[in-house]
Recover the amino acids of this structure.
């Protein structure tokens, strides 16, 4: 019994009246002919001229609900209607696995598509985007709306067509990359998107939380010396890994660092790495340099930290796989290989050196944005997931979205058993195989969820030795995913899967499987995130089906090892637990959840820090993209060019003062290479209105240039087009350099902490100064090039 109502309870109570309205309209809409029902779409569009989307919601939802029933043979349940209303309010609807989130999506997608501005339905992979658009597109098109889908292999002209549709299904990566590419376009016709108005994000926690630590980056290649990466790797392997002594809580809160041993400390809890004083001294000796912290040695410091990170914190078959002489990244949340994705800033080359494969050129960042800043550009956004409440604070703080739990259509009857805790991994694996054998004898389907490819292969080998037939689903065979998942609920099926099987595809039971007790889910360790564990559990017990979930963990698992397994070892010893015997106690489960919360807090802090740094970049990016769009839209920027000329003159005059007087020589050197005015003499600088005369002379000179261009190309407005072209090229050149410079600043900014300065404030201040300098360079290069433009006059 619940004594206190939750936030979700209160919010669902508020929308009961709307749900009732929609249900009461059902008999009326069921009476309509197909043509009458289809005509509702145009009626709603006309009414939107005078009414709001909220006014139309009950009728629009009733109409698309009836269309779902006629076209798809599925009618959204009242709880699904609740989910649709919550999403239309710009919130996250938390709906359990198997509750039909794909169908729920038709409600807010149809309503918001009536505006004609476009709806983006965001999924986590191309397979789901294609599947959902093919299925749900039938009902949208039946109701007179267009529906499209964009996948990774699609060319720009086709993308533009798909974005023009009323509803477009697409992955978060493709959506973000198209935004960046549009803002690198040199002609308006090359842009494919038509604005960011409303998006529905499926598996919203995966997109906005899990992937938020990895920014989207469009890269070009830059020259690299392969030998330097091999040298960094060789030296990194010579350094000794140390550790930081444990601190008490008071010292930790006070910011004490503890005592460090070795040459570097790799902190797996926070995925951080830093050099000790001894390590710094050794690197300085290795590279024959005086001070590793000097700005000219930043690249050495960066290269060594990358090599150490690759060797100490990144693990083969967990973070990446090696295939065909190439290091391929693995999505740690889904277990999927990410083809084409590479770490930037030399980290990927460090991994290639570590693994002895071909070292490919380092990437130069041409455009970048974080998912947080990208999705916050939408006018309105909403999401749906099976597991969102554990991250509700982050959804609210970063995205302005709260999470509302939607009740299930049928009660959940799955049994979630207590964790079994073993001393070692070997004991745990043996216990898992023993449990699989026992459950498999009665034909109950089993899903064994693993964190890594390595564990899935260990267990597979152990099951084979016991003669138990099974399927394995991991990053090494993603093409078989749908087929394997489809069979995982069959009577007698045993499936081992990394996290990739956890999202997007339901495991459906046959009748014999239900009679045998439903899907038995076994977790081979607790994840860093409670959500990932809940996702695995949620594979079982969908739509009121029977099922069981149980986690087998060991004191050697990463989570317990990093968060104090010593005290659990003493518990084993004090209780006299024999080898191979587990402990099952609620206290241990609570301790594990406490450790998970700590990791989640660390990750939240990391993502929040990323956003705070990226916000500085975002402010700059907004200005650059806004100015680029003015140029692409064909706006007359002539007044901007004249303003640049004036700004340059004023700036160069100030730079040319010697004491209280303007130096003619300095002004000649500073100004004339940009604006080719006659040589300035000392006497000129002493005349009244000298600076004003400079402005006038520069404008007259520019007008003469324009007159020559008009003579050569009459009625073609050639000078206006040249202004736009040169400004665009100059902006792009310096903006790409600014991205690189800001990245270098970010990597070195921690050095200011030794001066007890606020690193984020320092980053903002220095970044602002660099942006102003970039702006000056853009002005000077653009104006210099414009004064150099020479028309070709043809003789008649």
């Amino acid at each position: 019994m619940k004594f206190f109502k939750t936030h979700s309870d209160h919010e669902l109570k508020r929308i009961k009246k709307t749900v009732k309205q929609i249900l009461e309209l059902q008999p009326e809409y069921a009476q309509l002919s197909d043509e009458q029902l289809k005509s509702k779409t145009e009626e709603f569009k006309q009414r939107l001229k005078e009414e709001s989307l909220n006014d139309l919601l009950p009728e629009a939802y009733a109409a698309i609900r009836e269309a779902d029933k006629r076209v798809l043979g599925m009618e959204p349940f009242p709880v699904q209607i609740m989910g649709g209303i919550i999403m239309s309010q710009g919130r996250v609807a938390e709906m359990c696995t198997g509750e039909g989130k794909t169908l729920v999506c038709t409600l807010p997608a149809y309503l918001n598509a009536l505006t004609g501005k476009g709806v983006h339905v965001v999924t986590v992979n191309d397979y789901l985007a294609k599947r959902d658009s093919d299925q749900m597109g039938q009902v949208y098109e039946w109701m007179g709306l267009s529906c499209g889908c964009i996948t990774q292999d699609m060319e720009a002209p086709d993308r533009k067509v798909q974005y023009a549709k009323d509803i477009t299904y697409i992955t978060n990566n493709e959506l973000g990359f198209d935004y960046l590419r549009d803002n690198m376009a040199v002609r308006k016709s090359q842009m494919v998107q038509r604005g960011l108005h409303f998006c529905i994000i499926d598996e919203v926690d995966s997109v906005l939380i899990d992937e938020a630590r990895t920014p989207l980056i469009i890269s070009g290649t830059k020259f690299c010396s392969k030998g330097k990466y091999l040298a960094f790797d060789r030296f990194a392997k010579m350094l000794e890994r140390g550790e930081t002594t444990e601190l008490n809580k008071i010292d930790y809160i006070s910011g004490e660092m503890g005592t460090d041993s070795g040459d570097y400390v790799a902190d797996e809890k926070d995925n951080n790495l830093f050099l000790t004083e001894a390590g710094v001294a050794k690197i300085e000796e290795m590279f024959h340099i005086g001070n590793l912290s000097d700005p000219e040695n930043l690249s050495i410091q960066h290269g060594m930290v990358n090599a150490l990170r690759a060797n100490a914190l990144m693990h083969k078959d967990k973070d990446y796989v090696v295939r065909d002489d190439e290091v391929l990244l693995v999505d740690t949340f889904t277990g999927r290989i990410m083809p084409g994705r590479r770490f930037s800033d030399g980290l990927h080359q460090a991994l290639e050196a570590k693994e002895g494969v071909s070292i490919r050129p380092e990437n130069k960042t041409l455009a970048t944005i974080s998912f947080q800043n990208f999705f916050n550009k939408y006018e309105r956004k909403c999401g749906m997931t099976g597991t969102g409440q554990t991250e509700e604070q982050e959804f609210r703080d970063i995205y302005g979205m709260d999470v509302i739990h939607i009740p299930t259509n049928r009660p959940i009857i799955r049994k979630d058993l207590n964790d079994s805790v073993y001393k070692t991994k070997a004991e745990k694996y043996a216990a898992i195989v023993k449990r699989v054998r026992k459950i498999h004898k009665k034909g109950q389907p089993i899903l064994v969820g693993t964190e890594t490819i390595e564990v899935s292969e260990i267990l597979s080998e152990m099951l084979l030795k016991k003669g138990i037939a099974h399927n394995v689903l991991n990053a090494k065979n993603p093409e078989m995913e749908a087929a394997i998942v489809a069979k995982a609920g069959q009577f007698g099926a045993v499936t081992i899967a990394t996290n990739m099987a956890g999202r997007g595809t339901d495991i459906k039971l046959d009748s014999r499987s239900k009679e045998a007790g439903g899907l038995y889910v076994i977790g081979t360790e607790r994840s860093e995130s409670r959500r990932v564990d809940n996702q695995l559990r949620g594979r079982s017990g969908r739509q009121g089906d029977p099922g069981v979930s149980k986690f087998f963990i060991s004191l050697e698992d990463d989570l317990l090892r990093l968060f104090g397994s010593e005290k659990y070892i003493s518990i084993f010893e004090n209780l006299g637990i024999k080898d191979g015997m587990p402990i099952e106690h609620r206290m241990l489960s609570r301790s594990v959840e406490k450790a998970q919360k700590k990791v989640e807090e660390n990750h939240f802090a990391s993502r929040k820090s990323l956003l705070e740094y990226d916000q500085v970049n975002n402010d700059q990016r907004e200005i650059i993209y806004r100015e680029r769009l003015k140029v692409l839209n064909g706006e007359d920027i002539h007044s901007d060019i004249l303003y640049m000329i004036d700004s340059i003159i004023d700036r160069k005059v100030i730079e040319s003062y010697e004491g209280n007087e303007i130096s003619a020589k300095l002004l000649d050197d500073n100004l004339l290479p940009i604006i080719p005015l006659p040589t300035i003499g000392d006497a000129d600088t002493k005349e009244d209105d000298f600076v004003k005369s400079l402005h006038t002379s520069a404008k007259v000179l520019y007008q003469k240039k324009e007159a020559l261009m008009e003579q050569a190309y009459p009625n073609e407005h050639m000078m206006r087009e040249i202004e736009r072209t040169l400004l665009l090229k100059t902006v792009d050149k310096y903006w790409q350099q600014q991205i690189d410079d800001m990245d270098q600043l970010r990597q070195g900014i921690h050095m200011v902490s030794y001066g007890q300065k606020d690193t984020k404030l320092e980053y903002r201040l220095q970044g602002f100064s660099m942006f102003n300098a970039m702006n000056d360079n853009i002005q000077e290069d653009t104006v210099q090039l414009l004064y150099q433009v020479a028309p070709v006059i043809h003789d008649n």
In short: The longest strand covers residues 362-369.
